[in-house]
Design a protein that fits this description.
Layout lengths: L23 H7 L3 E5 L1 E5 L3 E5 L2 H11 L2 E5 L8 H7 L2 E4 L24 H17 L3 E4 L1 H9 L3 E3 L19 H4 L4 E5 L4 H6 L3 E4 L6 E4 L4 E6 L5 E6 L6 E4 L13 H23 L1
Parallel strand pairs: 1-4, 1-5, 5-6, 6-13
Antiparallel strand pairs: 2-3, 7-10, 8-9, 8-11, 11-12, 12-13
């Protein structure tokens, strides 16, 4: 990338084919993995609907994971999941302002549940279930963490700070980006957790920017780590044949240097490359 902060088309190396298919099979396994990032529906200027993904998430995929980010619109009738799962090597389910609709886990809608994105619900929950069975790598962040639980039959509490003994995990309403994403509490990981292998520690310091949280864990959800107040913060999916991990905090912030964020995204990258290599070998 140039000092301008962006690249011209001539500066990009996209690996377009020159029409020579010799060595195509070996080239496939050498190319960067593709990570599908499920978008959030957002109104621009209060009236124009758009499909968006946070720049921090895109940069974490491109610069730390070492993959090509591909935004998947949260418009179910425009998305073919069979095509998406064949084009992408894995998926990143990010945070987002709208919450999972309580219909998805059998609860009645209340004002505390906030706003919703039913299109994202439909796509994200289906992708998680697919990955949990196929072994295709998937990483969940914040809302993505909550989607993991709902996809596996769990429930959510709309405002965990109202529960006895719980702290306020919400993003500070004021302040700079640095202040909002500041490290706020420890997460203690259970003995033997795969997260310990990634972080090299049983206790890690993380940020906190969420209002909802896990109420009842889904049947295949393994709670790997808790905040000091008992709030689940790290989970995996039991018996998933591949990388299926999610965290309630936001590792995309400062992902290139944070001692917790960076190894998590790097582990995701290793899983993606292993999946891609397996597909390439199976195709031969």
């Amino acid at each position: 990338m140039s000092k301008r902060g962006y690249c011209t088309a001539a500066e990009l190396s996209l690996g377009f084919s020159n029409g020579d298919n010799n060595g195509a099979k070996s080239d496939f396994s050498m190319r960067k993995p593709v990570v599908g990032i499920v978008a959030n529906t957002k109104l621009v200027d209060s009236h124009y609907p758009a499909q968006t993904a946070g720049t921090m998430n895109v940069e974490a995929v491109g610069r730390v994971v070492g993959a090509v980010p591909l935004i998947i619109p949260a418009v179910p009738d425009c998305v073919d999941l069979d095509v998406v799962t064949s084009v992408c090597d894995g998926f990143l389910l990010t945070g987002g302002r709208p919450n999972v609709h309580p219909d998805e886990y059998g609860h009645e809608e209340t004002e505390a549940h906030g706003t919703f994105d039913r299109g994202r619900d439909a796509i994200a929950l289906a992708l998680i279930r697919h990955c949990a069975d196929s072994g295709q790598p998937v990483l969940g962040i914040c809302r993505g963490f909550q989607e993991f639980n709902v996809a596996m039959g769990g429930t959510l509490h709309p405002e965990i700070r109202d529960l006895p003994g719980r702290m306020n995990h919400r993003m500070p309403p004021n302040g700079t980006t640095e202040e909002k994403f500041a490290l706020r509490h420890m997460v203690h990981l259970r003995p033997g957790s795969p997260f310990i292998d990634i972080f090299g520690a049983e206790d890690v310091l993380v940020n906190s920017l969420h209002g909802q949280g896990i109420e009842d864990p889904g049947a295949r959800i393994v709670i790997e780590g808790h905040a000091p107040d008992g709030t689940p913060e790290a989970i995996t999916i039991k018996d998933a044949p591949g990388f299926a991990m999610a965290v309630q905090w936001h590792p995309e912030y400062n992902a290139q240097s944070d001692p917790v964020s960076k190894p998590l995204f790097e582990a995701f990258g290793r899983a993606l490359r292993a999946w891609r290599q397996g597909e390439a070998l199976a195709a031969e």
